[in-house]
Specification:
Layout: E1 3-6, E2 13-17, H1 22-34, E3 36-45, H2 48-59, E4 63-66, E5 83-91, E6 103-104, H3 109-119, E7 125-129, H4 140-148, E8 152-157, H5 165-170, E9 177-184, E10 192-194, H6 200-210, E11 215-220, H7 228-235, E12 240-243, E13 246-251, E14 259-261, H8 266-278, E15 283-290, H9 297-305, E16 309-317, E17 320-328, E18 341-342, H10 347-350, H11 354-361, E19 366-370, H12 383-393, E20 397-401, E21 404-409, E22 417-419, H13 424-434, E23 441-444, H14 456-463
Parallel strand pairs: 2-15, 3-14, 6-7, 10-11, 18-19, 22-23
Antiparallel strand pairs: 1-23, 3-5, 4-5, 7-9, 8-9, 11-13, 12-13, 15-17, 16-17, 19-21, 20-21
Length: 465
């Protein structure tokens, strides 16, 4: 396992291009594979997670071509770049073939949950699994609606999964279902599914399954979650209706391939936005970042806390809004930030950014409260626990709560030896904390960053004085 040393920066300056959005890249590969004909995707994210999605569809007979030197993959599946153009030669809803072996999603929760919706509509049986982390991720949330639609899915029960005491109390009950999942697809029934919690992955899984059902499938969310699936289905010409928090598709649906341009990932940009706010003397321009309203919670939080992150030259391409983001800080001191409370409908819009928001909160005046975020307990790590424990090692004042955390600031951070727990978002957040800490911060196990942001540390080094 690789480690990294980080020291305080004298200023974050420059113009950078953030790799393509991970969520949109997944969906482009998935929907392009079940479209009829060719789909061309620009700025596809060549991360381990997105490559897992590509490889799953290749196992099911879909030809996906990497078209330039930037995105050639090595035999072991490791990538040499973080962006490229890909061509997907889709075979329609029923064009997938039964894979010869178990589908492996690696560390990608998006892959296993979204592809399960596709597999539910096939006329063959498939088993889908992933790494040790994936095998502890809860899947009942997708199994229940797919079962209603007629799919038959088997997984492991809670008693078969070895978990820590904290995981045992934080998961959704002892009757939870975990991968590997054996999915026996077939003719699906339409459904109206009222989601118990806001989740773009669950919503997308049901909508994708709805493409195979005979009639209208509706999903009702308790609060808006990221809407990339709805936007992309619309871009491919699939009739989709959105009325408030009710989203509907009619199946069986057939649609042609399309051209897609993917914006930079705002969840990845968030680390550099926070760095620009916290490191004195920073002036940073992030080019062509996705500013989909369901994803801009990080900008809302920054503005409420008193920071300055300005969106410039916004346009819409491939149904997705994007713009440049500029972040600056004073030469002698950072902008004075204030603690705020984050809860309710805001949480789905910042769920991936909460670890880096916690870093920002350590430097804010007063108390920052994050609640209604219990979902963080079942990510790549228990992110409430892991980001709290590692920032405390650096001197932060964080109290862990069942569904969030309470952070008191500002606190002067100091270097420490910290762990990523194999979680890419924890590793990147701690790296940004290291830029404002006294002394040297050593982050153990940084290989995990490849799952979402290959090239992160190279960019960080480039723009750090």
């Amino acid at each position: 396992m690789k480690s990294l040393k980080v020291t305080a920066s004298g200023g974050i300056k420059g113009e950078i291009h953030i790799p393509g959005d991970k969520s949109i890249s997944h969906r482009a590969a998935i929907i392009g594979s079940i479209a009829d004909g060719e789909t061309i995707v620009d700025n596809f994210l060549m991360s381990a997670d997105c490559l897992a999605t590509v490889n799953c569809f290749r196992e099911m007979g879909i030809e996906i071509e990497m078209t330039n030197d930037k995105c050639q993959t090595l035999p072991a599946g490791r990538q040499v770049s973080n962006e490229c153009k890909i061509i997907i030669r889709g075979k329609g809803l029923k064009g997938l073939k039964k894979p010869e072996k178990m589908l492996d999603v690696g560390n990608s929760g998006t892959t296993i949950r979204l592809i399960s919706g596709i597999l539910a509509g096939q006329d063959f049986e498939t088993t889908i699994t992933g790494d040790a982390s994936i095998q502890k991720r809860p899947m009942r949330r997708i199994v229940e609606p797919l079962f209603r639609m007629g799919a038959r899915i088997e997984g492991r029960s809670s008693s078969e999964v070895r978990r820590t005491k904290e995981e045992e109390t934080s998961n959704e009950g002892r009757d939870e279902i975990y991968p590997p999942l054996k999915i026996k697809g077939g003719k699906l029934r339409p459904t109206e599914y009222k989601m118990p919690m806001a989740s773009a992955q669950v919503k997308s899984c049901v909508l994708l399954a709805g493409l195979y059902a005979d009639g209208k499938t509706c999903v009702i969310e308790p609060a808006p979650s990221r809407d990339h699936t709805e936007r992309m289905l619309s871009h491919f010409g699939v009739p989709i209706t959105v009325i408030g928090n009710k989203i509907s598709v009619c199946g069986p649906a057939s649609f042609e391939g399309a051209e897609i341009d993917i914006p930079g990932d705002i969840s990845s940009a968030a680390y550099f936005i926070v760095a620009g706010l916290l490191v004195p003397g920073s002036d940073l321009l992030l080019r062509s970042i996705g500013v989909n309203p369901t994803r801009t919670g990080i900008l809302e939080v920054v503005h409420r806390m008193g920071g300055n992150a300005e969106v410039l030259d916004e346009v819409i391409i491939s149904e997705e809004p994007r713009g440049d983001i500029r972040v600056t800080s004073n030469e002698k001191r950072v902008t004075k930030m204030k603690g705020i409370e984050m809860s309710g409908e805001l949480i789905p819009k910042i769920i991936d950014e909460i670890p880096i928001i916690a870093v920002l909160a350590t430097q804010a005046e007063g108390t920052t409260v994050i609640k209604d975020a219990k979902e963080l307990r079942v990510k790549e790590s228990d992110r409430i626990k892991t980001i709290s424990s590692e920032l405390r090692k650096m001197g932060a004042k964080i109290e862990e709560k069942e569904d969030g955390m309470v952070i008191n600031g500002p606190t002067k951070l100091h270097g420490a030896k910290v762990q990523s727990y194999g979680d890419h978002r924890v590793a990147m957040s701690i790296a940004i904390a290291g830029l404002i800490a006294e002394g040297e911060t050593i982050i153990e196990d940084i290989d995990c960053v490849e799952t979402s942001f290959p090239g992160f540390f190279k960019i960080l080094k480039k723009i750090s004085a």
